[in-house]
Amino acid sequence: MDNSRETVVEIKNLYKSFGDHHVLNGVNLNLYKSENLVVMGKSGTGKSVLIKCLVGLITPDKGDVSILGKKLNHLTTKDWDALRSEVGFLFQGGALYDSMSVRENLEFPLRHHREKFGVIKDTTPRVMAALESVGLANTIDLMPKELSGGMQKRVALARTLILEPKIILYDEPTTGLDPITSREIVELIGKVQHTYGTSSIIITHDIDCAKVISDRVVLLLDGINYTEGSFNDLYNAKDPRIAAFFKK
Ligand SMILES: Nc1ncnc2c1ncn2[C@@H]1O[C@H](COP(=O)(O)OP(=O)(O)OP(=O)(O)O)[C@@H](O)[C@H]1O
C-alpha cells in the first residue's frame, strides 16, 4: 500500500466490550481516499460494532478514531451532525422508512442536514438525480413495500448518495439478495466509487462481492485485524486461519 495516499479514516487501537464479552481487542485500520476496503471476518467478530463506532452509534472503550482529520472523541453535537453528512451508512436491512414514499425517504436527510446545502426550496432535482444514479428514477412516488428487496437497497443507497458523502460504510450490502441482484448491487457500489471518488468500507461475507469490489481486504479475527492485502493475496494465503475463511 502506498503510504503517501490521503487517509480519510484512521482507527487506532480500538477496544470495545459488552460486559465481559470483549468484542474489539485493539483494532488498527486505515481507509485511504477513493479506495474500497472490504472487511471480512467470522460472524460475531465485531465488524458491525467497528463501523458503528465510526458513526457514533457505539462508543468505544479505548482507542482513537479520526474521520476526515477529526478525532471523534472530541466532537460537539454540531460537529457530529456535520460529519454524519460526510459519512453515509448503509445498514444491513436497507432501513427505508416504511411509512414514507421513496421521495420522502430521500428528502429526509436533506431536511436533517440543512447545514450542508442550506434550505432547498425544490428538492425534486436532487431526489431525481440520486434516484437516477441507482437507475430507479421511476420509483419516486412508490412506497417501500412496493419495491423488491434489491430495489429497496438501491433506494437506500440513493438516500445515502443524496448528501454527497465522502465516505460510505456498507454493512453486508448483498446479504439476503439473489446472486443476480447481488451482482447489480456490487456493480452499483463500484460505479459510485468511480463516479464520486468516495472511499468505502464494505463489510461482507460474500466472497464474490469481495473479489469484484475490493481494492484491499482486511480480515478481522478475535476482535483484531489479523491480516490484510489484495483479495488474491488473502485468497491464495497458506495460513490455515485465512484459508479456512475462503472455504477452499
Ligand atoms: N449493543 C450491543 N450490546 C451487547 N452486545 C452487542 C451489542 N452490539 C453487538 N454486540 C455483540 O458484539 C458481538 C459482535 O457483533 P457484530 O454485530 O459486530 O458482529 P459481526 O462481525 O458484524 O457479525 P455478523 O457477520 O454476523 O453480522 C456479537 O456477539 C454481538 O452480540
TrEMBL record:
The keyword ATP-binding applies. InterPro entries: AAA+_ATPase, ABC_transporter-like_ATP-bd, ABC_transporter-like_CS, P-loop_NTPase. SMART domains: AAA (SM00382). PROSITE patterns: ABC_TRANSPORTER_1, ABC_TRANSPORTER_2. Gene3D superfamilies: P-loop containing nucleotide triphosphate hydrolases (3.40.50.300). SUPFAM superfamilies: P-loop containing nucleoside triphosphate hydrolases (SSF52540). Keywords: ATP-binding, Nucleotide-binding, Transport. Residues 9-247 form the ABC transporter domain. GO terms for molecular function: ATP binding; ATP hydrolysis activity. This is ABC transporter ATP-binding protein.
